[in-house]
Design brief:
single chain, mainly alpha, 3 helices
Length: 81
């Protein structure tokens, strides 16, 4: 429990620092306007990182332990011809 809380704390701190750095960079060098480019870039990078992490850990891969987190894989495999 404590390891999980510490990992969330460290991940949240690192994420907020990176989000701040990206927003400062976009404000300094990016296009001006009403569209929130810094938020879009941060979300895109975070989605890519999460996708890589899920792929790397092997959640949802054939032969992996498939519990609640990878229900979509089990349902897709069951409906495949």
């Amino acid at each position: 429990m404590m390891k999980t809380a510490l990992a969330i704390f460290i991940g949240g701190g690192a994420g907020s620092l990176l989000r701040y750095a990206i927003s400062r960079t976009v404000i300094a060098f990016g296009p001006a306007g009403a569209f929130p480019w810094a938020t879009w870039i941060t979300n895109l990078l975070a989605t890519g990182l999460l996708a890589w992490l899920v792929w790397r850990v092997g959640v949802g891969q054939p032969g992996a332990s498939c519990g609640t987190p990878c229900w979509w894989w089990a349902s897709a495999a069951a409906s495949a011809p």
